[in-house]
Amino acid sequence: MNDSITMTLNADELILQALREDISSEDVTTNAVMRKPQKGEAQLICKQDGVLAGLPVFQRVFELLDETVSVEFHYSDGDKVKKGDLIGTVTGDIRAILSGERTALNYLQRMSGIATYTNSIARLLEGSKVKLLDTRKTTPNMRIFEKYSVKIGGGYNHRYNLSDGVLLKDNHIGAAGGVKEAVWMAKEYAPFVRKIEIECETVEMVQEAVEAGADIIMLDNMAVEEMQKAIAWIDGRAEIECSGNVTKENIEHYISLGVDYISSGALTHSAPIMDISLKNLHAV
Question: pLDDT of 21-37, one tens digit each?
């Protein structure tokens, strides 16, 4: 996925939805204290150490409210910053700055939080062949921003959505009537260029998946000893992903197993926001 093109094609519509959520008719507070245009300036200040993600989205919020607003950044997405750093300056009509502040910060804080958390886990995998993947456990209407943030933090994107790849989970297996049946049906239906991934919870399911010709086998919520047995059985005949409650605190247990991928929903659903503020607004 070309991040810049994808963001350009999809971001504006989503940002406008967020702005409409916050301003259904008018910003009554701002309109009460600012009766006419007044050029102003505010500082974007980092309040904790972390990795930045979402600066272009932050800027776009203000541009969609008032195209004359400008933002000068001293950092770029992916840069590490420390508490107290001046990230940038927003200049323009004070009314646009006040009305867009919360929405812009919501994006930047959330995206930088994900990038920061992802980076802290990705560093633990340095020197290994294991790739850190995200999941579809994303905030509704925030997926494009959250998956972008994972990549900025040093992780990789799993499939983007249900149209993006075949992943047979427990309920798909149940609907199909078994592991082998699910893999065979997927191979028959899906385009030949798509890999078939299947989620397995036991060694017996892994054996069936290998025999059926699955391309990727996800070891889901399996104990370490069970995963070792499953990996030995697979013996290079399929790529291996492990998943299920993988977090920063326990990921080291999985690195030496010999898996290709580790996926973690925590990257997007449990990353705390990064504390960033827009301060010192004044007329210029």
Answer: 999 999 999 999 999 99
Backbone angles phi, psi at 147, to 5 degrees: -70, -35
Are 104 and 149 in the same domain? Answer: no
Q: Rounded CA gap, 254 and 56, in Å?
A: 35
Residue 42: closest CA among 107, 113, 112, 95:
95
Residues 115, 186, single domain; the answer is no
**In the annotation, is 137 catalytic?**
yes
Both 265 and 276 in one domain: the answer is no
Catalytic residue selected from 47, 131, 137, 195: 137
* pLDDT-based confidence at residue 41 (cuts at 50, 70, 90): very high
Q: Who has greater pLDDT, 244 or 219? A: 219
Does the structure show a pLDDT above 70 at 5?
no
